[in-house]
Amino acid sequence: ELKVEQNPLFLSMQEGKNYTIYCNYSTTSDRLYWYRQDPGKSLESLFVLLSNGAVKQEGRLMASLDTKARLSTLHITAAVHDLSATYFCAVARALTGTASKLTFGTGTRLQVTL
Amino acid sequence: ETGVTQSPTHLIKTRGQQVTLRCSSQSGHNTVSWYQQALGQGPQFIFQYYREEENGRGNFPPRFSGLQFPNYSSELNVNALELDDSALYLCASSPFHLRTGRGFYGYTFGSGTRLTVV
After folding, report:
1. A10, A93, B6, B12: most buried by Cβ count inside 10 Å?
2. Closest partner CB to A102 (pick from B51, B55, B107)
3. How far apart are CA B74 and CA B63, in angstroms?
4. From the list A33, A42, A100, which residue is nearest B110 (CB)?
5. A103 interfaces chain B, CB cutoff of 8 Å
6. Would you say B106 and A33 are in contact if contact means Cβ atoms under 8 Å apart?
7. CB atoms B96 and A98 under 8 Å
């Protein structure tokens, strides 16, 4: 059974500093997703990583994927308050030829303080 | 282009009752998946529908069932509600191309239905 683990579970960040969230998964996959969720809200797609060595950047967030290590990282550069939210990684696995499911990590709650 | 819409946004039900949640998929998306997110946890896969049939299921009992309609919209039905069914239910649509076998690269999630069972 595919397991997805994130750490840390909670991260208190100071504005202006850099931080990294780690996402480990237990079996091979060809797709890894990062989502952001604000309290009481739905999931906002941040990145889709499709291959080993993939790196994507959007603003202060950069995600990378190492499929050999089964590890993805989400790097935050110069944190700002607007980044406070819960971040999930999710790994896709095929169920059948036409079905696929996402297995989510436990989430990392980020809180940015002044 | 419209996104994924879910209704209702909030719902309170009594234990033992039945509930139906609705989802309209994003334009051009032909598959719909449902996820349950308990408070403080990551979403859990319930099932997926493609061409009006369930083609993938997670570890949920048969009292969780669904439908997909010709316009790709979907319903999630839960019978005999239990207190542990209280959660945010998320619908996600995605495009799947049978001919190429490519798809699922973009899941679009709806805003969810918050179900409280008392």
Report:
1. B6
2. B107
3. 16
4. A42
5. yes
6. no
7. yes
